[in-house]
Amino acid sequence: MAKRLLHNAISKISSPDQQRSGRAARWFVGMALLSLGCVGCGTTQSQQATEQLLMSDAVDRAVAEVNFSELSGKTVFLDTRYITTAFKPIGFVSADYIISALRQQLMSSNCQLQDAKEDAEYIVEARVGALGTDGHHVLVGVPASTTISSAAALVPNAPPIPTIPEISFVRRDDKTAAAKIAVFAYHRETKRPVWQSGIAQARSKSHDTWVLGAGPFQRGSIHGGTQFAGSAIDVPLAGSRKAKRQGNGYDGYREEFRYVEQKSQDADTVVPASHEEEDVTSTESDAADQ
Q1: Cis peptide leading into residue 216 (ω within 30°)
Q2: DSSP at 90
Q3: How many domains does the chain have?
Q4: Within 10 Å of residue 100's Cβ, how many Cβ atoms?
Q5: Does residue 1 fall inside a structural domain?
Q6: Which is nearest to 168 in space by CA: 138, 206, 147?
Q7: SS3 letters for 153-184?
Q8: pLDDT tens digit string along 106-147?
Q9: Measured in whole angstroms, how far is the alpha carbon of residue 97 from the centre of its chain?
Q10: Is residue 279 part of a domain?
Q11: Non-local CB neighbours of 159 within 8 Å, separated by 6+ positions
Q12: What are phi and psi of 112, to 5 degrees?
């Protein structure tokens, strides 16, 4: 009975083409199972947090490049109408975050920020030219494929062939966020321009790498060094764990800083005058000597 069943199974794959297709399918499936049995595996379920961190970091870097020192000590009003009306929120990275970052940079530059336009001498107008993410995927190995299983389905009486899984030696996912911000200032009454920042453009990057299925090894501007599945590690010959920061003013923007409140002396304070009485005894003794 067993011999009869085996003979019937073999007779279904009688043509040379079907036999070669079956051998190729068995070889690919065997290699896939061997690869999966010898290496590790790591997956990332969601990229929303990474994308939001990348976008907010790009905004921070772009704002940090804007130098408001030309308006230091001046009363200014931040005009945000071209940010709030034209910008669509992306997660938590909304127009409010950009506006707050600009307000922080203004106050850090000793600008006297006013809530009403009428109280300010200068109007600071800001705009956002770009904010978004993109990425690309690089694979060294065999990508997942349904070609053989689809081709086998066209052959009559061919056994079902499973989909070939991804067999990767190295896989890398790169994500980049970019932000573009520009600011200029003009006199409120005369409408004459007094200063412009130029284009402040910044990028934030994140790189996820898998080696023989083990990973992800994460690097980039939002990770603070090399991480393995979210935990910081030291990689030999890869440099310090501390991430390199871009921009000269970014360190001062992102680090904690305490502003010292300046206490002005009251000009109306009366300082009591001191008066020294003349020593009468010494005066009389001097007269007697004469």
Answers
A1: yes
A2: B
A3: 1
A4: 12
A5: no
A6: 138
A7: HCCCCCCCCCCECCEEEEEEEEEEEEEEEEEE
A8: 999 999 999 999 999 999 999 999 999 999 888 888 888 777
A9: 14
A10: no
A11: 12, 13, 22, 152
A12: -85, 95
Residue 153 pLDDT class (50, 70, 90 cuts): confident
Name residue 48's amino acid: Q
Select from 56, 41, 38 the least CA-distant residue to 206. 56
Enumerate the H helices of 79-179 as residue ranges.
81-84, 95-108, 147-153
Predicted model pTM? 0.65
Domain that holds residue 23: 16-259
Q: How many residues does the chain have?
A: 290
Write the CA distances from 238 to 59, 166, 225, 241, integer angstroms.
28, 28, 10, 8
Give the SS3 label for residue 247. Answer: coil
From the number of C-beta atoms within 10 Å of its C-beta (0-12, 13-18, 19+), residue 198 rates as exposed
